[in-house]
């Protein structure tokens, strides 16, 4: 875990707007910063891998704030059931993955998970507009793309050994007592953040999703973790092409101004990748 601040459980819709009010105040005095490039960059889709979004009078939010990194690949429309069975790591154009991995230094296996997660979420949360660069920035800040503390990201997307954060025992953190009897984080007294996207067990129990479609929701598997992160941010923030919503969603993931600014800076940097 890169910051002493813990992850918080999901913020309900009824609690979002007080967070947005705080965020707007911080933006006004320049404490929180986010450029438009951080907000929404859409990766091209692998030919025939997933159904294209239905036609709409609304503009594609993925191109509202930053250009698509590379040419958009034509998509063969398939039914939603086929799309839902496709592992997220197989959704993005592999040539784009190789090119952007080389230009950013993001491991190709991690990038495939981040890009595929936002493409899948564009199907399940069509109004969200989250960019691959946001999820990638979270992966960098949370675990250096699954490489922190000597961990290794395997070809199947599993991170090992597990990346486990400090106990949330009030010593420089919020107090979060054990919620999983140590099943996920190995600590039966306090919760700890776990995995490449650093979820605490109580949050994972609510938002964990099966990104590699193997029937198991695994916090240490990067497809599952990336898809869960993208969906969680969309659930909390709504339209993430709106700056205050983007900041509020990231702030709900980890309520630290420094964390928010670090994610924004990384997302801006990744947005420039081609």
Word description of this protein:
The chain is mainly alpha-helical and 274 residues long. It has one domain. It is 41% helix and 1% strand. The protein has 9 helices and 2 strands, in the order H-H-H-H-H-E-E-H-H-H-H. A two-stranded antiparallel ribbon has the order 1-2. A hairpin with a 5-residue loop joins strand 1 and strand 2. The protein starts with 12 loop residues before the first helix and ends with a helix.
Layout of strands and helices, then pairs:
Elements (H helix, E strand, L loop, with lengths): L12 H16 L51 H6 L8 H11 L3 H17 L7 H12 L8 E2 L5 E2 L40 H7 L14 H16 L5 H11 L3 H15 L3
Antiparallel strand pairs: 1-2
Helix pairs in contact: 1-8, 3-4, 4-5, 4-7, 5-9, 7-8
Rg calculated over all Cα atoms: 17 Å
Structural class: mainly alpha
Order of helices and strands: HHHHHEEHHHH
Low-confidence stretches: 1-24, 50-79
Outline the biggest β-sheet: 2 strands, antiparallel
Distance between the termini: 29 Å
Strand content: under 5%
Strand segment count:
2
- Spatial strand arrangement across the major sheet: 1-2
Instruction: Specify the overall morphology.
Output: globular
Mean pLDDT: 79
The overall number of domains is 1
Helix content: 40-55%
């Amino acid at each position: 875990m890169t910051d002493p601040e813990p992850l918080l459980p999901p913020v309900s819709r009824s609690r979002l707007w007080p967070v947005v009010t705080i965020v707007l105040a911080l933006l006004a005095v320049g404490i929180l910063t986010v450029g438009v490039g951080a907000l929404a960059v859409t990766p091209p889709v692998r030919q025939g891998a997933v159904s294209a979004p239905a036609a709409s009078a609304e503009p594609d939010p993925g191109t509202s704030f930053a250009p698509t990194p590379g040419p958009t690949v034509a998509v063969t429309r398939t039914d939603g059931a086929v799309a839902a069975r496709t592992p997220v790591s197989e959704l993005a154009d592999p040539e784009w993955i190789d090119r952007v991995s080389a230009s950013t230094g993001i491991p190709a296996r991690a990038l495939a998970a981040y890009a595929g997660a936002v493409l899948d979420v564009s199907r399940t949360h069509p109004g969200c507009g989250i960019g691959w660069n946001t999820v990638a920035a979270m992966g960098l800040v949370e675990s250096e793309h699954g490489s922190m503390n000597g961990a290794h990201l395997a070809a199947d997307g599993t991170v090992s050994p597990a990346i486990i954060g400090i106990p949330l025992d009030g010593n420089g953190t919020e107090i979060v007592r054990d919620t999983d009897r140590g099943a996920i984080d190995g600590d039966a007294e306090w919760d700890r953040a776990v995995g490449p996207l650093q979820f605490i067990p109580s949050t994972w129990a609510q938002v964990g999703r099966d990104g590699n479609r193997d029937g198991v929701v695994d916090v240490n598997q990067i497809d599952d973790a990336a898809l869960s992160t993208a969906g969680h941010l969309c659930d909390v923030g709504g339209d993430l092409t709106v700056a205050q919503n983007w900041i509020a969603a990231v702030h709900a993931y980890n309520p630290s101004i420094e964390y928010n600014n670090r994610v924004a800076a990384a997302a801006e940097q990744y947005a420039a990748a081609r």
